[in-house]
Task: structure prediction
Amino acid sequence: MLGEYRITGRRAADISASVEGAVADGLLEPGQPLPPMRELAQELGVNSNTVAAAYRTLRERGVIETAGRRGSRVRPKPATTGREQIRVDVPPGVRNVSDGNPDTALLPSLAEAFRAAATEADRAPVLYGDEPLEPELVRRARADLDRDGVSDGPVAVASGSLDAIERVLTAHLRPGDAVAVEDPGWGSVLDLVPALGLRLVPVGVDDEGPLPGDVERALREGARALVVTDRAQNPTGAAVSAARSKTLRAVLAAHPDVLLIEDDHGHGIVDLPPHPLAGATRHWAFVRSVAKAYGPDLRLAVLTGDPVTVDRVRGRQRLGPGWVSRVVQRAVVHLWASGAVDARAVAASYGHRRDALIAALAARGVDAHGRTGMNVWIPVPDETGAVARLLHAGWAVAPGARFRMNAGPGMRITVSRMRVEEIDAVADAVAEAVGSRPARHYA
Result:
């Protein structure tokens, strides 16, 4: 079953370390089955409960998955090898259009905002036991959510979108539970879910968001949570349309116990309104990060949700970091209040470059997608070859393997720091690397 490798150890910690180390070293491959617990216990001369504890630890770390009577096996993409490792090393002289970062020229200066926040902190320092939320941040965030039709609910603050998503998942789910996620989708979520000991269930995506039929199938087969990106979906640029939102709400209405998590990380950089699903199920959370519009290093996201979910998130947060710095919260309030970011201008800048690249590719017979945000997704017949040929031509793009499970091969190009005068050159290189072909669905 394991080929040449033999699991060793007498304690649960040693057994799990033996497996995890073998996975990290490539001695146990993704998808490889592990021995049944009783069989391994007999081989090692230990109690079956010891092996069960080791397997439980491995599930919780995202190294293995267990599928009932089919037993346990190494995850197709173990958490020990994060998707961020699937990238192109950018040599000198090659333009990097792969990293997904915002255009730093469109980010606001933080100096004045932090001066104002620090001055207030000097005047009234935040101490242990003080209110963890900045009242003005909560007021402004809730008002913004109300304007966008997000269901009413209490507000919490987390250290970025991924932190918020992790806290919501762990507030409701247990290792072994299944989570429906977009495919292709955000690589960090595809890493996070198995790292929490949860199972990924892929859901196809088109330009209008998750495919309702795939969502229905995933929920019918037992997925206990669904993660949806409202706008600027990474990597495809999809945005949930009004019609798609209505259809997905109808699907979710038949599964009221499913945990719904919406990621609106594109808030502040997109020109399409959101069509939220919030409130379609009993437990839900809606997350908004300031990273793309104001700067990734601020590490702040606002979330709202049903009272039970938000209360659990706040309670667990109190036992860990305690709170997100009120200095940072006050700085974000200052940025909002001062109008430091012109969301329409930022959205127009990204949109102009994105649409120009898609049009240039279409003129060369290359199918590409990017309805919102700063990324363009290009389905390709040979992902490895296309990425390598583009690198040779002087362009580093993101391999689609970082973002997909069952979806077809592709690659992502980030336009945020691309100059308009470069677009024809990029399109020429892509067309040369992948060849022209008829448009097709990318999921």
The first strand starts at residue 64 and ends at 66. Residues 157 and 302 are 5 Å apart (CA to CA). The radius of gyration is 23 Å.
